[in-house]
Amino acid sequence: MKMINRFWKFMLLAIIIYTIIQLLITTEVFNLFYTNTLITIAINIILAVSLHLVIGITGQFSIGHAGFLAVGAYISAIVTMKLALPFPLALFAAGVIAAVAGLIVGIPTLRLRGDYLAIATLGFAEIIRIIFLNIDYVGGAAGMVVSRTTNWTISYICLLITLIVIINFTNSRHGRACVAIRENEIAADAMGINTTYYKVVAFVIGSFFAGIAGGLYAHNFYIIQPASFGFLKSFDILIFVVLGGLGSLSGAVLSAILLTIVSTFLQDYAETRMIIYSLILILVMLYRPQGLMGTREITDFFTSRKKNALKGGENL
Amino acid sequence: MLKVDEIDVYYDNIHALKGVSLEVLAGEIVTLIGANGAGKSTLLKTLSGLLRPKTGRIDYFGQSITNKPVQSIVQSGISHVPEGRRVFANMTVAENLDLGAYIRKDKKAIEEDKQAVYALFPRLLERKKQLAGTLSGGEQQMLAIGRALMAKPKLLLLDEPSMGLAPLLVKQIFQIIQEINQNGTTILLVEQNANMALSIANRAYVIETGNVVASGTAKELQSSERIKQAYLGGM
Ligand SMILES: Nc1ncnc2c1ncn2[C@@H]1O[C@H](COP(=O)(O)OP(=O)(O)O)[C@@H](O)[C@H]1O
Ligand SMILES: [Mg+2]
Predict the structure, then answer these.
(1) End-to-end Cα spacing for chain B
(2) How far is the CA of B39 from the centre of ligand 1 (A)?
(3) Sign of CA dihedral A99, A101, A104, A108
(4) pLDDT at B158
(5) What are the structural domains, with CATH classification, of chain A?
(6) How many contacts does A have with B, using Cβ atoms within 8 A?
(7) Pocket of ligand 1 (CB under 6 A)
(8) Domains of chain B with CATH codes
(9) What pTM does this model have?
């Protein structure tokens, strides 16, 4: 009962937010610039939340998330532009192929303990970028022309699906296993949790949604280029998760929103953007080293419970 | 109950266990003593499936568990409390215990067993909503043991439960180990604190650089000159 209740509350809130924003768009209170910012926010939240599952929940330090974004972007662009298939199908293909890439990177590296994943993901993202740079079929360095199909509604739907899947996963038995791995892998192992399996599952789900974000991203501007998927992009996504507070989904969402707004308004001053970004980071690390939210969630402020880390069995 | 036959375990090229054999009978407390680096933890990790022996055989109730995955070994009733009080620091005491029952699905019995763990460790009950990372060392050790009990083990593998604890706490932990044993759980206890371990054990094995060098009843080992010299402070 409680579970179902929570789900409908979430959906109600989601619909209200959607309606308000849609109203603002149709009445042209929000111009194209604002709408575009909203789409970017949605994409960045998807990226932040998908990486949050890997780093914040499962404790696996992946620092090449832009690689999966790139896979999704290019795959979706190929599906719509070269194969002339519908956009939703392209999004799905983007997610699936990115997930397969996640599987290929994840299986050999996640079996090992330690920081192999960080190195492997960093390398993977670079390799992907260089591959696209050298394939003429997708335009090489000049990039690939993509029609502008992403709109606010489809971005919002993708965002909702991402949130529902990841929140449910986190609050399930599987999510508890992942948190146990983050907290202490050896103990989790000894409990009989198949740690390699869960690390790979979390990583593949994270890659899937990064791929979807890539599909939205590719169709939100007229061109995609390998240069947009470099280390700085991975770093941007990593910042969302760290700034929000490792382990807090609402923190990741919040910092994705804040930082997207900050960087949108500083778009024309690229250097200033990096300075302000760095300043924000330094300030947060000085005054809130645990991130904006620590490991807490927004909902904790509304319920009297002072529990964190886990909310046993209360799925959306 | 458990029969280990000539197992060899390697870490890459380090030969950590060299043809180790031992046996644990149902209802016993068996202790494994040995210096730092002798291979005690390696043996426990091999028994719980975290490591694989290269050669040799491990039988549990007459059936081989030699290459079984950890999950099925835990499910068959072997629980391992790893060395160093490994609790899930950002989870509450209660959540830690719930995870101990991870491989079980019988919700009602799990709840009963949780109450039994609280009865055994009243301190955990008082602190059930506290984050495990904020517990004292002794309490964390109790939690680690309690969590292993949540898997309803027939055989409990304990890796140096006394490590880093004040003498009074060590005594308390050893009393609880005896109590767990009296409630019907067989225990394989790894210790560097040979005095204490031998005082509660039925039988013991001594391990040196990957070899079992002595075994016998706890009384026999306590009175052996060689063991006294090497492990009991020469008293
Ligand atoms: N993960 C590991 N990798 C390589 N060697 C290890 C590892 N763990 C333990 N060893 C080695 O195996 C031997 C036995 O270690 P261990 O079983 O931990 O000893 P004990 O628990 O008796 O102190 C030691 O020589 C140790 O250095
Ligand atoms: Mg040891």
Answers:
(1) 34
(2) 6
(3) negative
(4) 97
(5) 41-301 (1.10.3470)
(6) 81
(7) B 11, 14, 16, 34, 36-42
(8) 2-231 (3.40.50.300)
(9) 0.90
